[in-house]
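[User] I have long wanted to understand how a fold can be written as tokens. Those tokens are not coordinates but codes from a learned vocabulary of shapes. Could you go through the record with me and say what the backbone is doing? Thank you; the sequence and its tokens follow:
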Amino acid sequence: MSKVKGKGAGTRTRARELMVQALYQKQIAGHSTLELTSQFQEQVAYERVDQAYFDEQFKAISNSQDELEKKVDELIDRPLEQLDPVELAILLIGVYELESRIDIPYKVVINEGVNLAKRFGSIEGHKYINACLDVAAKSLRKIEIQAQG
């Protein structure tokens, strides 16, 4: 299995990193999902990610961004417009994964979100992401959380 199409944790982490960048760019420049997908598929970094994961997840998140933003808005303690674009991108990915990717343990979703915030967000942004995704997990993954005690 080649690294390009690998399904390892590292390739998924890098796919999420690209998604943060693409969602950020969508917010700032207003590019379409198709335009961004094409643009990011041409990047050298795309060769090192789980490409199927990026393609599927980014399209789903980008195309349902309005609905996901409504869910994010219910989790946060400030108006959605006051969220940093990087934080919003991370929360969109996290809420989508908690809601739609039950194959990914909720602890992994939260950890990935926190790590993305440490890498791309503000100095203390990872704490905010952790708190928001924890709240989301408690409502979207009740059964999984209860099963783990």
Remarks:
- The chain has eight helices and no strands.
